[in-house]
Design a protein that fits this description.
The protein is of the alpha+beta class and 359 residues long. It is built from 8 helices and 17 strands. It has helices at 2-16, 21-42, 58-64, 73-87, 93-108, 113-126, 136-148, 154-170; strands at 172-176, 179-183, 188-193, 196-210, 213-225, 230-234, 237-239, 250-253, 256-260, 265-275, 283-290, 304-307, 312-318, 321-330, 333-337, 345-350, 353-358. The strands form 2 sheets. Strands 7, 8, 10, 11, 12, 13, 14, 15, 16 and 17 form a 10-stranded antiparallel sheet that branches. Strands 1, 2, 3, 4, 5, 6 and 9 form a 7-stranded antiparallel sheet that branches. Helix 3 packs antiparallel against helix 4 and helix 6 (113-126) packs parallel to helix 8. It is elongated.
């Protein structure tokens, strides 16, 4: 009887307001939101689900799910901010619907309060005016799809959301034990590709920081896959400033390259290298760079560049001594190099006669 009365009350409310189209629309939206929340849970044969009496009470309903966990002061602040955003029009009705649906899937995955709060932090970060146009809808759709997958766990969801919040708030592309890759640019957006959720970056500098050292690729573009943590880049430059050279004196210009951002090193082939002391024009070769602790300009081993060509000739590197072969630049050091098939050659001559010929 109580259920019948409740339905009579709802229908009566709509009937009494039939002359108010906006009220009818609002009532229908509330019913639709509640319907989608319940369906997102029951369709996956979930255990008992949280039911919302009013969609406007969603933040409080989620908070009530975890009464045994004492919220921190930061948590309380976050809950207050999100509750305000829920009420003040920051989120559209369609966006609220998606959040409710996603929260239903979170419950199926047995997510804990930290996962809901992390989701809220990501949403509020996307809604920051500084992050307009970063691909919020794409990100939400990708997270929803990921959550639906059987293999997805609360831990894997936490990894994605942590990475998202770090990028939106601190410009950290990838954080791993001992190192962080960051950008100084704000021109990026989330995209869903065949390879998964990807962040596409416009021209900016990227850095890898670790204790005691950092490396940098300047003015590059790239794509970062959040699942594999792989960066695919194009263009940019690397200087030898941390070895004591001026930026315009010794540097490499990159073409296409890849970085596993779980690591603090990378290699890039087919770069063009400028060293105004040794080469009159840019030369092609392979670049390697790595974060090293406690490097000084004198002891630095990186950046490293190896020429492809092994037939350079340097006359009088010392009095009466010439060199023919490839060149390896390790930090501030210059080393002659060769291969089994292209051996390096040192000539020692005196008074126009060959005294010593060494491979």
């Amino acid at each position: 009887m109580n259920v019948i009365n409740k339905h009579h009350h709802i229908h009566g409310k709509i009937f009494r307001n039939y002359l108010d189209p906006q009220q009818i629309k609002n009532d229908m939206v509330r019913i639709a939101l509640l319907f989608f929340f319940v369906c997102s849970i029951t369709s996956l044969h979930a255990q008992q689900a949280v039911q919302f009496e009013e969609i406007e009470q969603y933040p409080a309903s989620v908070e009530a799910m975890f009464t045994t966990s004492k919220p921190t002061e930061d948590d309380k602040l976050l809950i207050a901010r999100f509750s305000e955003a829920w009420q003040n029009g920051t989120l559209s009705e369609n966006e609220k619907m998606k959040i409710v649906q996603l929260s239903g899937l979170f419950q199926v995955k047995k997510a804990r309060n930290i996962h809901y709060l992390l989701l809220w932090r990501c949403i509020l970060s996307f809604k920051d005016p500084l992050n307009t146009g970063k691909g919020y809808d794409t990100w939400m759709d990708a997270l929803y799809k990921t959550t639906q997958e059987r293999r997805t766990t609360p831990t894997s969801l936490q990894t994605i959301m942590n990475a998202t919040e770090l990028l939106l708030n601190k410009k950290i592309i990838c954080s791993s034990p001992g190192s962080e890759w960051r950008t100084n640019g704000n021109d990026y957006r989330f995209e869903q590709t065949d390879d998964g959720l990807t962040v596409v970056f416009g021209t900016a500098d990227i850095f890898c920081f670790s204790v005691g050292d950092s490396i940098q690729i300047g003015q590059t573009t790239g794509r970062f896959n959040m699942a594999t943590q792989q960066w695919t880049g194009r263009g940019g430059n690397v200087t030898w400033e941390r070895t004591g050279f001026e930026a315009s004196e010794v540097y490499a210009t990159l073409d296409q390259y890849k970085i596993n951002m779980k690591q603090s090193r990378y290699e890039a082939d087919s770069v063009m290298f400028v060293h105004k002391i040794y080469f009159p024009t840019p030369v092609k070769g392979k670049l390697s760079d790595k974060v090293m602790r406690n490097q000084s300009p004198e002891t630095a081993l990186y950046p490293e560049f190896q020429t492809h060509d092994k037939t350079f000739v340097f006359e009088n590197i010392y009095p009466d001594v010439s060199f023919e072969g490839g060149i390896l630049i390790q930090g501030a050091r210059t080393i002659g190099s060769g291969t089994d098939t292209e051996k390096a050659l040192i000539r020692i001559e005196k008074s126009d006669s060959l005294k010593l010929h060494v491979h």
